[in-house]
């Protein structure tokens, strides 16, 4: 998980989007098209197949993909636009040191496979020697801090972000880490599929360690790493626990950290990173940090070195030679996600530019591709959705007046961001040369030093963007009470300037409603209008909310995503509630818009039917079994199929639009439907 994203609620998992690769051109169809549908299936039997069956058949998974959906089609398009921009930058030869020059150089350094393959794994040799040369654990801890400084955290992460109980100020925060498989369940679950992943992980480790010259020690090192990572996994919070803001908040004076966590020299650790005189700190997961202390104490120096070396090697494979990348892909791509073939080189290079100079790239992207008219229409849509959600809040009979008032206050206080930031990030102090690994080290160090400069002991900058403008995604940030829609998502099939309201409310309208609802989902509702984690609900209203939300949790818990594998209704609750609220609020906004400007039937569908078809079409996707297993463990979003077939049975307007009755497989009796918003 990207720690910076921990608190944000997105429309889809950011990892999912980044992991996607190129696919050959797909035919884009404007608006609703029966070609995207499967008319052999009745809407009430399997609405997902009915709405997206044609699309799914026309877009089978290619070898590169673990999952490919309409989202990815758009990402693909954005990638091509960015590639074109970079190609122009390379041709025109920009002023050395300018943003254009930095982007071109970073891209070219990633594309230069001849230089990378010649160097092999040698670029990390000096860093390996620093670890192997440590004479005692104290020296090793210095390397832990040095590696964090270079963007390669070992046992845990640190970051600076809003203090959730004093949201206008930034706070230094420690966060659990150190497990390469990402989720604790991978180390602990005993089902066959998970055991296979663990076995493959150890095989992968051995192969890569052999490649880097550790043939003799590889077996022992693999055992060391596996033992230490399993210990850390046991002490780590699950993805579900990490969604609970109160459970991840343990602010203390720095002096208490020093006193209560004596196994680590914190003053020295932060001094090396570049921070002194820290007053307060949040230990997000105390058990995980305590376990690091125990590991440091109980494991011998050699075992700790194995662990550190592995972190260094594993986190560097994308920046070294092709052989290492291939070994890494065979595990993370093939075994964990089910893809058969790695991304093409240009996509990996673009990914590196996006991760390190993303906002700079976004600046060039919006100048070329984002029309002002799109922003204007979007701002207008957001206003209409805000009005509709306000009406829904007022109409809730289970909420008391005082809670409603506070909810409306929060809704009216939304900080709205559309397209791109008002001020751009300054990269002028970042040095980019011809060597990819050195560039990455420079970028990581720049990132951390920039964060310290901008955030350490400073108030929160509410104008900061947590996504780049070209990103195909959207988010709600509870600590600033903000909703953000980057330029990247404001395109077909989410948004279409040439299409009518039925289409746009069903697509981007639901996305807007989804992000707004996050402000009132099981997590978001714990934050007030100023972004502080504080309970503004009456106890009775809070209880009634929980009872209602439990309907959705239980409903998703019984969904079987693969034979014998159930969805995780608790992990996905916030997202499922946001989909539910998004659909309801967008439908209401459409109905209001139609009172002023009635819509006619088109392509044989009523406006209401087109609304639901546009919504379902956002989630058209094909997905491999391995990816289903991975997402079920880690992703707070439900699988694409269930964002349609799990969400719609709780929407009364959907029954009405398609004449769904109790004879249909997807029918849910009214008293079993979620009644929220
Ligand atoms: Zn979301």
> Which superfamily, in CATH terms, is the homologous superfamily of the largest domain?
Collagenase (Catalytic Domain)
**Name of the CATH class of the largest domain:** Alpha Beta
How many runs of DSSP E, i.e. beta strands?
12
Kindly, what is the distance between the CA atoms of the first and last residues, rounded to a whole number of angstroms? 30 Å
Q: List bound small molecules.
A: zinc ion
The CATH architecture of the largest domain comes to 3-Layer(aba) Sandwich
Count of discrete domains = 2
Largest sheet: 4 strands, mixed
Q: How would you state the average pLDDT, rounded?
A: 95
Instruction: Note the beta-strand portion.
Output: 5-15%
- What share of residues is helical? 40-55%
Q: What name is given to the CATH topology of the largest domain?
A: Collagenase (Catalytic Domain)
Concise overview:
The chain is α+β, with helices and mostly antiparallel strands and 677 residues long. The chain is built from 27 helices and twelve strands. Strands 1-8-9-7 form a four-stranded mixed sheet, covered by helices on one side. A four-stranded mixed sheet has the order 3-4-6-5. A two-stranded antiparallel ribbon has the order 2-12.
